[in-house]
Write a structure and sequence with these properties.
This protein has 315 residues and is an alpha/beta fold. The protein is built from 15 helices and ten strands. Helix 5 (94-104) links the parallel strand 5 (86-89) and strand 6. Helix 9 packs across helix 13 (258-275), helix 9 crosses helix 14 and helix 9 packs across helix 15.
Length: 315
């Protein structure tokens, strides 16, 4: 694997005229990513063409677009495919990707590149890559890691899976969105690594929240306990960036929905099934996060797992 810092990537733009870019999916992460593409559009580049099933999301993006860089709203997938050389998909899951790809597939043309930046099931990613190849197009997977603020300022971590030539075409565009681009291997590998990464994160966050609750039951100061964790071997991204910032203050606003967390764990579960590995810790994690989702709903922040654990402990 190789990683490419943003400064280095930005210094290596693709030669020749700017490709025509299309973008599908203006959700919590997609909207700031589309705005970032608009803000970093090279002089003379074609306008970013956007599509979303929500007219409100399209209108909100147009209203927030930087001066001089308005997006071009496209009415249907056929028109979007016809006017895009590189098409980025920022969709919530494989079912959403399937719905879009079924509409796009008849309109793909030789040389077109699709970049799936959501969190999809790796086997589905490989299936759609093969379908795109049958039309002479190519698909790479480029899921992101990071919060909404990182999407706004272009400092996401981006995993990139696919053939070398297609990944090279995608890099200059991805460098406008991420501080680090990590080449993961063939198509589907990036989605697999993203799901497994999020399993490790979810396990760390769950353990941190359980430990904080037990510390408080003992009468220990949770702020001091957080300091101990972050200076010791229990340190992880949840203890460093979630406990003080979104959990101990009960704000639960870290910027990643509980439903998306559970969805990534289910994707990791599909990998366990595919490989036949008996991932007992993953199975436990899936059960706990599924129980939290049933109790709190998919829209709450993932840090609300702390509130769920408190409700279970209450008489």
């Amino acid at each position: 694997m190789d990683s490419l810092p943003a400064a280095t990537a930005a210094a290596c733009p693709a030669p020749g005229p700017s490709p025509r870019l299309g973008f599908i999916g203006l959700g919590m992460m997609g909207r700031p990513m589309a705005l970032r593409l608009l803000a970093t559009s090279p002089p003379g580049a074609p306008p970013l063409r956007i599509a979303d099933r929500s007219p409100e999301a399209l209108a909100a993006l147009a209203a927030a677009a930087p001066a001089g860089h308005p997006p071009e709203t496209v009415a249907d997938l056929a028109a979007l495919a016809a006017g895009s050389d590189i098409l980025l998909l920022m969709l919530p899951d494989s079912r959403a990707v399937e719905a879009v790809m079924e509409g796009l597939l008849p309109h793909l043309r030789p040389g077109m590149l699709l970049v799936d930046m959501g969190s999809s099931v790796p086997a589905e990613t490989r299936r759609w890559a093969a379908a795109a190849a049958g039309r002479g197009a190519a698909l790479v997977d480029a899921p992101v890691s990071g919060s909404v603020p990182k999407a706004r300022d272009g400092t996401l971590a981006i995993m990139l899976g696919g053939a070398e030539a297609e990944c090279a075409r995608a890099r200059p565009v991805l460098a406008r969105l991420g501080a680090t681009i990590i080449r993961t291997g063939p198509v589907g590998s990036a989605h697999a690594m993203k799901a497994l990464n999020n399993f490790v994160y979810a396990a760390g966050l769950l353990a941190a929240c359980e430990a904080v609750h037990m510390a408080e039951e003992l009468g220990l100061d949770p702020e001091i306990f957080t300091e101990v964790l972050n200076a010791s071997s229990g340190r992880n991204v949840a203890t460093e960036t979630k406990l003080r910032q979104a959990i101990l203050n009960r704000r639960y606003d870290a910027g990643f929905q509980l439903g998306l967390m559970r969805k990534d764990l289910e994707t990791a579960g599909s990998i366990a099934e595919e490989t036949g590995f008996p991932a007992a810790a993953l199975a436990t994690c899936r059960l706990r996060w599924s129980a939290a989702l049933d109790a709190l709903g998919p829209q709450v922040d993932n840090t609300a797992i702390h509130r769920f654990l408190a409700s279970e402990a209450s008489p």
